[in-house]
């Protein structure tokens, strides 16, 4: 099996480290199992972005509001954790500074939460 070519993104190293650190921290606090991290990019020559996706299993009783997930101080269950609710809002702010995009998908049937960010590729 051939190893894929390296992917380079355009952005500030410290900002990218903080984004990944905040997402890993969020996953480790709220995951009920293994965390899956996937780097996705189009192999099309004119592709402009790399997408990094963090997916983890969540509690079936979790009331996550995807629309509010990146709002400052939002926590899905404020009674069970000591989260400030700032981590994902910081992720969104930093990704926007890098001319990227951020989002989340909730699969209630599979009980999975995926949070992703996209940043420009360096070519």
Q: What do you see in this structure?
A:
The protein has 123 residues and is of the alpha+beta class. The protein has 2 helices and 4 strands; from the N terminus they run αββαββ. It has helices spanning 13-30, 87-97, and strands spanning 36-41, 49-57, 101-107, 112-120. The chain has a 4-stranded antiparallel beta sheet with strand order 1-2-4-3. α1 runs antiparallel to α2. It is globular, with a radius of gyration of 15 Å. The protein starts with 12 loop residues before the first helix and ends with a strand. 17% of the residues are buried. The mean pLDDT is 85.
| Mean pLDDT figure | 85
Q: In total, how many beta strands?
A: 4
Query: How many helices?
Result: 2
Helix content: 10-25%
Return Rg in Å.
Answer: 15 Å
What composes the largest sheet? 4 strands, antiparallel
Low-confidence stretches: none
Q: In order across it, which strands form the biggest sheet?
A: 1-2-4-3
End-to-end separation in angstroms reads 25 Å
Structural classification: alpha+beta
* Morphology: globular
Order of helices and strands: HEEHEE
Q: Provide the β-strand percentage band.
A: 25-35%
